[in-house]
Structures are given as C-alpha cells and as structure tokens.
User: Which sequence fits this backbone?
C-alpha cells in the first residue's frame, strides 16, 4: 500500500477552530461550561433558524436527556427506527424502557410511516400507547416528517428527532432537528462538523432546554452548598470543545456542499454500471450526504458488496456496510419488531463510501477505481 489511507469520514478543520481554542485556553476556561459554550448554544440555535440549544458531551447524552425530559422510564415503550447506530436504542435502554423497532421504507431508507401508523393503531387498541417516538435521520437525510408528525399528533405521542447524522439537511424547507419536541445532534469526530466529541439538544420549548441544562450539570439545586433533590448527569460540554465546534459551525454550509459534491461525483462515475443503486433523495428532501451510500446487486454488477469492500481495503480505502438493523443485534434480542425485510436487505447489500469533505479529486478517483476493479466493465462499453 504505497498511497495514504482514505478514511470514511475524517474531521476537516477550517483554521478558525485553532484561534477560538486558543482564546478559550488563554482565558483559563478549561472545565465544562464557560463563554464558548454559551456562544455555541446561541450560534447553533441561530444556524437552525430559531429555538434554543443545549451543548452536551455527546449525541447519545442528548438522546438520553430528551427521553428523560419526556418522562420515559421503566416499563415504557419507545417506537424507533431499526436501521441506525446502536446509540439510538441504547439511550432508550438507559431509561429502563424498551425499544420497539420499525422497518425502513425504500423511498428514504428511514422509518416507514405506514408501519408507524400500524403500530400506533395496535397500541391504541390495547390501551397502551408508547411513551415516545424516536425517529432517526439516516446518513444525513430526514425522514418523512409530514406523515410522522401527523401520526404523533393524532395519537398524542411526543416525537423526538435523532438528527445525529443530519446537521445541515432540510425537509420541505425546515432544517433537520426542528421536528418534534426535541432534536438531538452528534458532534463526534466523524460527523459533518465536529467538536472531537459532543452533542446538541435543541427545542422550541425554553423550559425543556432549561431542565436539560439542570439535569446535565448533576441536577444541582440553587443553594450555597451542594444539594441535589433529584438524580442528574455529567453531560455538559467542555468549554474547549465548544470553541472547536464554533469554528466548525462557521463552515457548515461548505462542508455540506462538499459532501453533496462527493455524492454527485460517485453517481456520475458509476452511472454506466448496472447493479449499483444510490440511496434515494425524494422530492422535498435535501440530504447532506454525510455518507454516500449505495446498494449492490451482485448478479448485475458482477461482484458482491463484500467483495467490493475487500478490494477497497486492499487499496488502503476505508468503507463499511450500512448499519446492521437493531432488531438483529444480540443486545436487543427479544424486542418487538414491526416490518418486513427492507432494513435487512439494505444491510446485506448496502455500502458506505468515503465521504469526507476534505476528499481530493485523486482520492475520489481511487475509490471509483477500487469499486470497478474486476467489475463487469462490459457495461460501460
């Protein structure tokens, strides 16, 4: 392997982060909280067009706090997407509640609203509605919130948006994170923008944000001594990391544009080859293409998804299958599942390509060459 490794989604600094980080360092605001955290919360909310935001230690912390704020607890059920990273369901498990997994729809790869309607109707008939619905925006694309919001309103079940992967996405003119009672974002190192670690909780409800800050700082009561009337969490973001996030937020639009450019390049370069189908983007959706994802029909393309992954690995290029559905994960064995095999099929045939906003034209060409190595080149003749 003579060429440098191409990573799936590496951090991409702009230069502004260093100055803000040094500003935080020189001010001696090193511990959690501080002026950088305050500024990030204001700027993040402004970037989403309103509401309030709370800076936290991770996207998972944001999901957990959102469920706690809705009163989710032992014995409750939360309906959620099956095709996602484990953190979504882990946050439900932290509360003592049980996840109920719903299959994906082909149109967006996200939670199928028809299955949500079926499950809510069944729950209503048995007199036990879920405590919340937690919907994931997969790989930078929003779910079909027109139907999902209407269903949650019909049954009076609160909706939480797991927008960990979708900062910068838009659905019918509304930015990701602005659907439901609360939205949750990740600022992990592999996301569109990063604080190296961290997350954000956003809401239109100032009281929910006030309570989130209180719980995230160990639920310390306003007293001259340390007094705690309820259980809290150590979930607040470091002032140093907030400085990094502020610098990253300044270039969010550019980072989204670059990732969408990666997707457009891959789509053009692979258009002549049958058996490769990209994650769709229906009308009304503007995905970030956090990761460019496609599915492989081996009988048409000439090689399987796994064979492509192996070839990319040999060329020092990172790729990976799409998320393994959570209803198939050993940790969630026995949890209820509604749906067919859409998510399972996407998992077995789906591939995530290198999608970082710092990808060079040469690196993108290397990825395409790796995909096409030993492919059925006759299709392009």
Assistant:
């Amino acid at each position: 392997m003579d060429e440098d490794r191409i990573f799936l989604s590496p951090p991409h600094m702009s230069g502004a982060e260093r100055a803000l980080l040094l500003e935080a360092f020189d001010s001696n605001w090193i511990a959690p909280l501080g002026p950088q955290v305050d500024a990030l919360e204001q700027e993040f909310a402004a970037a989403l067009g309103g509401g309030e935001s709370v800076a936290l230690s991770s996207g998972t912390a944001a999901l957990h706090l959102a469920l706690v704020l809705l009163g989710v607890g032992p014995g409750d059920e939360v309906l959620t997407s099956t095709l996602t990273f484990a953190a979504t369901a882990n946050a439900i498990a932290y509360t003592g509640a049980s996840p109920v997994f719903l299959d994906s729809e082909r149109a967006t790869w996200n939670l199928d609203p028809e299955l949500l309607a079926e499950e809510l109707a069944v729950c209503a008939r048995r007199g036990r509605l879920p405590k919340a619905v937690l919907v994931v925006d997969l790989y930078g694309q929003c779910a079909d919130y027109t139907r999902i919001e209407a269903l949650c309103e019909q049954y009076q079940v609160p909706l939480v948006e797991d927008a960990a992967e979708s900062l910068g996405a838009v659905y019918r003119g509304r930015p990701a994170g602005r659907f439901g009672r609360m939205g949750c974002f990740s600022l992990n190192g592999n996301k569109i923008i990063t604080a190296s670690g961290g997350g954000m909780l956003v809401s239109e409800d100032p009281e929910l944000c006030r309570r989130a800050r209180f719980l995230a700082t160990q639920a310390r009561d306003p007293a001259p001594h340390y007094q705690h009337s309820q259980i809290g969490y150590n979930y607040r973001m470091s002032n140093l990391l907030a400085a990094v996030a502020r610098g990253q937020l300044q270039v969010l639009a550019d980072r989204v544009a670059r990732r969408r450019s990666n997707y457009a390049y891959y789509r053009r370069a692979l258009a002549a080859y049958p058996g490769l189908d990209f994650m769709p983007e229906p009308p009304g959706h503007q995905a970030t293409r956090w990761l460019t994802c496609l599915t492989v029909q081996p009988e048409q393309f000439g090689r399987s998804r796994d064979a492509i992954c192996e070839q990319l690995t040999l060329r020092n290029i990172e790729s990976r299958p799409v998320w393994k559905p959570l209803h198939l994960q050993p940790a969630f064995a026995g949890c209820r599942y509604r749906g067919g095999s859409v998510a399972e099929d996407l998992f077995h045939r789906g591939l995530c390509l290198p999608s970082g906003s710092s990808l060079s034209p040469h690196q993108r060409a290397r990825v395409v060459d790796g995909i096409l190595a030993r492919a059925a080149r006759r299709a392009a003749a």
The CA atoms of residues 78 and 99 lie 5 Å apart. Confidence is low (pLDDT under 50) at residues 376-381. The chain has 13 helices and 15 strands.
